[in-house]
Fold:
Amino acid sequence: MSTEPETTEEAEPGALGAAAEGSTPGTGDAPGTGDAPGTGEAPEAGDAPSTSVGTGGAVAAEDGSETTEALAGDAGAGTEGAAAQRSEAEAELAAQRLERERIERRKAEKRGPISAGTGLSGTAADLLAAVRAVESGEKPVVTAFREPEPAPRGTVPEPARRPRPVSAPAAPPSAAAPAARTVEAVRAVLTGGGAPDGLAPQVVAALGEGADGQLREDPWQLLRVTGVRPEQADGFARALLGAECGPNDERRGRALTVWLLEQAALAGHTALDAPALTAALSQRAVPDPDEAVQSTLAEGEALVFQDALETTAPAAAPARDAAEEDDGEPEERPVRVLVGLERYALAEESLADGLARVMNSVPKGDGSTAEWEEAAASAGRSAAELIRTVAGHALVLHTGGDASRAETAALLRAARGLGLRAWTATHTTGGHDLRASGQAPADRPDGPEDGTDTTVATLADLLSGAEGPGRDADGALDLDLLVVLDAPQLDVETAAVLAESLPDGARLVLSGDPGVLWSAGPGRVFADLLAAHVCPQVASRTPDPGPVGELVSGVGIGELNQVDAPGKEVVIVPVRDAGEAVHRTVQLVADSVPRAIGIPAEQTQVITPGHGGAVGTRALNTALKERLNPGPGRFGGFDPGDRIAYSPAPGRTMPGRVVGADADGLHLDCSGAPVVVPKERVEHSVRLGWALTAHQAVGLRWPAAVVVLPGDAAAALTRPWVYTAFGRAERHLSVVHGVEQALQRAVAEVPQKARTTRLPALLRAQVPTAG
Structure:
């Protein structure tokens, strides 16, 4: 079975700059991820768009049926037109674009020459000198440094809060004509270089108008297309440039530098250490990596940063020599030189500014101290601590398992009782169903008759305006308290938009389980905030109940314990090979669990490490459909009643069921919300959903879960993966076990892989007095 990462869903950061044994420079894997997009499997629902390409000098499509266009790759790209009805993904991207334009304008006003770094030498000094050359005008400033046109921040009217079917708007005919001409021109260039002309639309999307001229001038710009690898771009360049093409070409060095930074972002990094970046360039046969990085910085395609390193003074430092004491020169503080893409640099800086503004603003005076204390006294122990902390602070971190959601529910009830406009934001639509944890206040006098909580929305809908309280006259969210559940799933760009959207005086509570897998996008916002210690933290003391909760709690601290399960709450099913794993999985879902546990097949979720291979999601979904809902797949491969996983945007998965299809597209029911997926997007954004990966399942829970661990999945297992997968089960967990001792070793020895980010240093600079 293949357990390769599929772009954002399965990508995990690795040791940058470390070449695989026996690899040839220029053909190794991307830094920070075991497999780059395009080398393994096509993306599934919930994965970031990726194009599979072949190997060798010419670019070739690996699997036409699985190749995914870049539908929503750049969250800052926005949407075209102003149609009255927009799809969920387009609405989200439009809102994020508006916020980022404002963020960039504010950053441009504050941007100035770098004054630090006089003590640097060697590569670090060269990198810094390159940036100063741009700032002083010695080298031209490219488009990347131009300020965007001002966009007024207007009021967003409060939308209807009931979900309704939406479809993607068609592009205006006037805009389509020039794009078609550009696509045809790019096709000709691709054909001339031996690349498949099917990549033309993606090249135009990446490079814009004039893409054909850009490719002729710099063939390595083909690397801007998701899934294209350096060796394929090299072959394309050789075909176009002939004898002029060589590994020392400055254009190649710049393109590879940007490509490596983009691959690192797919693995979760927002920046790379300069030595790691130059080492990775050396692996790609770049003769002078330092010069390649300097050229990239000079052209404005990347930025360089210096972050002070935290130093701990020894308990008994030796006395200095008199000569050293009389020297008079202050001791230089060690710094870390990082290189990153501008979009993530702006996002992290904006997030740090926004959080500092939230922390430094005075919370709105709704309710006296005595009233808050009265509300806390009526709550449980952990809930009372959370209520008291939120009463006096604008930003609070709340950690705990699924059972801890009862504490945030108590906080929301207390806040609403004091007159605060309080909202809850979840990662997925499945998070709306919070009845079991007490999150949804069914007894609210202003609630709907069906008991649905109208103050719960997905974070994407909240920011886009599809749901939520609407915006005030200043464009900020019209609320007093926001509780964000599943906070570990916040990537740095979404978190920056969230922080910028909060009004002054609002309270923000980020709540989540720090043991689960991190966000699909770059950054580790929740973990960075916990590590920075810039705001109060409340740890839940409420354990997850039952044998499943006991097992998951042990995994969280690195222990795989045997638990007493008198009601067969936890069952281990050993298997010897892939065929037996598939057979046992289908048997468990379709027969054993419904018969012995009483949980029907539609409430049981299968979770496996990868998409491809003999026991990946594709193989398991095929077998489960054949048993549970056989049919010809007359609606684009789907039949009514099929369980599906719908991905409206990269990194987000909405489980649902196929209702039907018509001329408008495929009709889905996603947690009670009707969704219409246009037929041209079905292939790229909808997959069968009886089996998911742990990355797709995070933020959701089912009455029963079947976790499949085939023998060849051992290398993909980590403690957070096991913790996340096992924790998706509420009442019953079956483990199809074929990895022998690898499971216990992963739980005990393989923690979450590190990500390189700047947020902790930025936060400490904004809040220097915090402990």
Summary: The first strand starts at residue 272 and ends at 273. The chain has a mean pLDDT of 79. The longest helix spans residues 88-110.
